[in-house]
Amino acid sequence: MLRQAKAQYSADWETNMGRMTRLRLIEVGLALVLTVVACFFVALAVWAEDRSEIAISGAWARPTIGEGRATAAYMTIENAGSADDVLVSAKSPQAARVEIHETKMTDDGVMTMRPLASGLTVPAGGAASLKPGGAHMMVMGLEGKLTEGGVLPLTLEFKNAGAIDVSVPVGQGPAGGAQTNGTASEPEHHSHP
Ligand SMILES: [Cu+2]
């Protein structure tokens, strides 16, 4: 429609100069509006993606002991979504390796742990708890000691939710929450390289 109008008036450039400019302005304006609308939809898509269904709470990591460069980190992972998600891996810029472990009691009463090969499932509308004596993040090859009051940065990788960064406070339990010290200690961690 605009194009037609433009052609019609372009016959007499001089006299229709004012009109042309106005039409051009409308075209430019329209292009701008379309650009803004496009940007809006892109932003909306990004926002929707950012609005993760995964929420992390009560995260904490145990201070390292002596010269040990390994520790365990715990947290609760909630999934508000309608589909199961899976914590597939984790990493930290301060550690060589982070594994997702589960702790199991053998028949003869020995606590052992092994990596969860297929990750940790966080059920839809439910939660997965990483806590002493159960599943945990095994942090290995730390650059330095982890002392109480410090923070360990972790990046969790979920199958659906993607990467989620967590600043894990170093202490004896969830910051500001109930201390799970005592029976909670996991001596088996010291055997890690
Ligand atoms: Cu472990």
Shape: elongated
Looking at the structure, the CATH topology of the largest domain is: Immunoglobulin-like
Q: From the 3D coordinates, which CATH architecture of the largest domain would you assign?
A: Sandwich
Query: Which series of helices and strands comes N to C?
Result: HHEEEEEEEEEE
Gap from first CA to last CA? 73 Å
**Overall SS class:** alpha+beta
**Can you summarize the main beta sheet?**
6 strands, antiparallel
Low-confidence runs (pLDDT<50, min 5 residues)? 178-193
Total helical segments: 2
Helix content: 10-25%
Q: Beta-strand level of the residues, as a percent range?
A: 35-45%
| The first-level CATH class name of the largest domain | Mainly Beta
**What gyration radius follows from the Cα positions, in whole Å?**
28 Å
| The CATH superfamily title of the largest domain | PCu(A)C copper chaperone
Ligands, ions, cofactors:
copper (II) ion
